[in-house]
Amino acid sequence: MLKKMLAGAAVAAALLTPAAQAQTGLSVFVGEIRLVPYEKCPRDWIEPEGQVMAISRHSALYRLIGTRFGGDGQISFNLPDLREAVPERGLRYCMSLQGAYPALR
Predict the structure, then answer these.
(1) Cβ contacts of residue 56 below 8 Å, gap of 6+?
(2) How many other C-beta atoms can be found within 10 angstroms of the C-beta atom of residue 76?
(3) To the nearest whole number, what is the mean pLDDT of the chain?
(4) pLDDT of 6
């Protein structure tokens, strides 16, 4: 039961606009990956399928993951490819392109 409630809260946070997140206290971190039961990812989220991303457009995400998944590190970097990692039919991974920058240790 608790597991379902926590999953529901994570899904709800993924759908909230930045203003609604601020009001509810829920936050999304840039680069965060969540498993969702939707046909498409919410706005400002993308399915991580190994896409080549422009560093100039996604500099915060680049600072977090660098070229760990590919790219030249000058103009581009790649997202992870999680197409084969989906645990069950009807689910998909979505990665946040916008959000708070996490304070890493």
Answers:
(1) 75
(2) 17
(3) 83
(4) 40
Query: Model pTM?
Result: 0.74
Any bridge partners for residue 94, and if so which?
A: 34
In a domain, residue 76? The reply is yes
- Mean pLDDT of residues grouped by 10 in the chain (105 residues)? 41 48 69 95 96 97 97 98 92 95 86
3-state secondary structure 28-93: CECCCEEEECCCCCCCCEECCECCEEECCCCHHHHHHHCCCCCCCCCCEEECCECHHHCCCCCCEE
Residue 69 near residue 50, CB atoms below 8 Å: yes
Segments forming the whole domain that contains residue 73: 2-18+28-96
